[in-house]
Amino acid sequence: MHKGISSALASLSATAMVMALLVLVSAPAYGDAHPSDPATPSTVTADALPTVQINGVVWSQVVIGNVVYAGGSFSTARPAGAPAGTQTVVRNNILAYDIATGELINSFSPSFNGQVLSLAASPDGSRLYAGGDFTTMNGESALRMVALEPDTGQRIADFDPQPSNSVRTMVATESTVYFGGSFFRVGSAWREQLAAVRASDATLLALRPVVTGGRVDTLSLSPDGSKLAVGGQFDTVNGTKGNSSALAVVRADTGEKMAYPASAYVRNGVGGDGSITSIASDDSTFYASGFTFGRQSTLEGIVAINWSDLDTRWLEDCHGDTYSVYATDDLVYLAGHPHYCGNIGGFAQESPWEYNRAMAFGKDAAGIITREIHGYTNFEGLPHPKLQTWFPALSAGRYTGQNQGPWNVAGNGDFVVYGGEFLRVNYQDQQGLVRFAASSQAPNLRGPEPQGDAFVPSLSSTTAGEVRVRWQAAHDQDDTKLAYKVIRDGKNSAPIHTVEADSTFWDRPGHSFTDAGLALGSTHTYRVFASDPSGRESRSQTVSITVATNDEPSSHYAQVIEGDKPANHWPIKASDEATLVDESGDDDLKLNGNAGIDPGSTLTGASGTSLRLNSGIAADAVRAHRPNEFATELWFKASSNQQGRLIGYGNAITGNSSNHDRLTYINSLGKLSFGVYERGARRTITSSDSYTDGKWHHVVSTLGANGMRLYVDGQEVASRASTTTALELDGFWRLGSDRMSGWPSAPSSGFSGLLDEVAIYDRQLSAASIANHYQAGQGQMVNVSPVAALMAEVDGMAVEVDGTGSSDPDGTVTHYAWDRRRVHCTRGSRNPRLPR
């Protein structure tokens, strides 16, 4: 845990932690635009609705009724769909548009000579306040802060506070306007970055907290008007030194600073390398967002703090700056550029980084933050909210030179609106402004998105009359649950299989279906359709296969492996070609580089072929979820110059992973090593003998409650009992080459030898099972638990048992065991009577 917050997190009350853990157990489902659970909150859809565009940047938005007011730095507006520089009208730094249609409101056209940084509305909607860097409005003096009539844009003359410098944030009640920025005077009176005036005539009020070391960027007022949350790029409030949180809560009448627990770990005013960028509020909570550069400041996501007692409700620890927050009745939307949410159950940090500039969270705590692995501030142990399935694609822009997209988010009950400098939304040109609507008011155009060729079904036929169809889930920008149907022989055919399943862009599991009863030797085509709850559909390519006429024999070794129920098993058969078929699960491996099937060498009693890597790889496109209990098993054959990585886990399917772990490799000395990261430190165990003798060897690496253990040729050769966990990384299993730098005696190149019979288990294998597997691979007959096929019929105390579907490689099944009630039968006997 990073220095500076470990003691703060350790001081969380036992009651708070118990409550957080209880919430984790009952975590809600993903929220999306069309949730299947009525109790789950609905986001707006990811449809980018046609909206007026601007030629610069929008910094602030406020919604009054059905009108969106947008302020920023721009000089023209143009209709949705119009290319830049066409169909423009003059709008100097402020405009208004209809939230239902997205069309510019022509009757509102005040003109400011400098950028508008902040907008706020009076509670009754009768006034619109604008603040910024401007000094004139419509050619007349207007020093940085004015009040307007929302319908006409006319200035309200009695309101003229005249702050000495920029106004960056405002919040208004019927009687008072609070504002902050980088000013040091209001009129002729001293006020340091924060002040309040009477709404009716701009008379300066007594509120005067002393903010030093920077500016105020954001304000929010508690529902009862007693507390004012203050955020920005400042060091101290009222002379208080310490953690420099850049977030303060003061009494709205006196400016007295109030204590709150999050100040111990939200410290965005340290060294000037961070800020609290936005504060939004609802009836019970305020939500503060932040950015950092460097590692002195801490918060890049959102912290939720109760208004009542100022205790922390949760902290959203996605990384990538957050610039603006908007709270609805059920959800919290953000604008920013998160690129990592892996420690709250969200998406991993990819290489290169992928930015999600518009996202949403539930308002309830839904889990506990796990340890940070990328060098960011570690908020491990705090509660976090649920990341929702809502990911519209907003691009970066060029106007500010900061390479950002949206800077602001606002809305009303039916719409969420984003403003910034982005140039495209959902891969279509749309500059600076965009609307998103609830599903009842949206076209619901965003459907399932297949990713690469993973959605193309993978076909195999190893049993006479059967075809196994495998595909990887698609994902959808605004729906978690998708429906799949498998079509055989033409798009007009009825589905032969349907299934519903959850997926997100970072979590796309594999699916499979076995199509049985087909004519031997016949040829069939298959296609997979994916659809979302609104009926939008995506279709895979069509692929074909000829049905096997004979059962491909299952080796004795494969039967031994399958008896121990691996999560994945890749026997490596001649028919695999470019894809290794998973005999136990749904995770076929794609071959890349020089990897290919070798027909000339195989393990005794196995399938007859092996995998020659030649420094290539075979990778699983399905992301695994940071297993801390597992076993990897394979056979390898290597010569003296064929050291390399055999199997491992990383965050890339091809190329070198930027983060990697859980690897078994032949080191530069020809010895076998098994390594994991344990809380940032490399832990390895290594055999004493070398194994690059051109013979087949069996290696099993296990991690779990029994520590790290390495087995070679049926015997344990190294262990480390104290290491029971690995890197908190969601990644991909892959065979062959990947990053090896930094590991002890790391080989200089990828593995170029042979692999066979690869398996992964979701538990540690016992020493006895490992010895059995080795013996089977040596050609010895090993007892295997029979696999019985039970009939569906039960007549009183009698149960139908069909022994013909049972298998036992070394003899005939002679009896079946039924838990507490034994069934005795010989092969083929029917209706055995259960003992009473």
The total of helices stands at 4
- Structural class, by secondary structure, is mainly beta
Quote the CATH topology of the domain at 556-777: Jelly Rolls
Q: Under the CATH scheme, which class of the domain at 556-777?
A: Mainly Beta
Number of strands: 64
Provide the low-confidence segments as ranges.
1-28, 788-794, 803-807, 814-836
Overall shape: it is elongated
Mean pLDDT: 90
β-strand amount: 35-45%
**Name of the CATH architecture of the domain at 556-777:** Sandwich
Determine the fraction of residues in helical runs and give it as a percent range. Answer: under 10%
Q: How far is the first residue's CA from the last residue's CA?
A: 60 Å
The largest sheet is: 9 strands, antiparallel
Q: Roughly how many Å is the radius of gyration?
A: 32 Å
Question: What labels would you give this structure?
Answer:
eight-stranded antiparallel β-sheet, nine-stranded antiparallel β-sheet, Jelly Rolls, 4% helix, mainly beta, disordered C terminus, disordered N terminus, Immunoglobulin-like, 64 strands, 40% strand, 836 residues, 4 helices
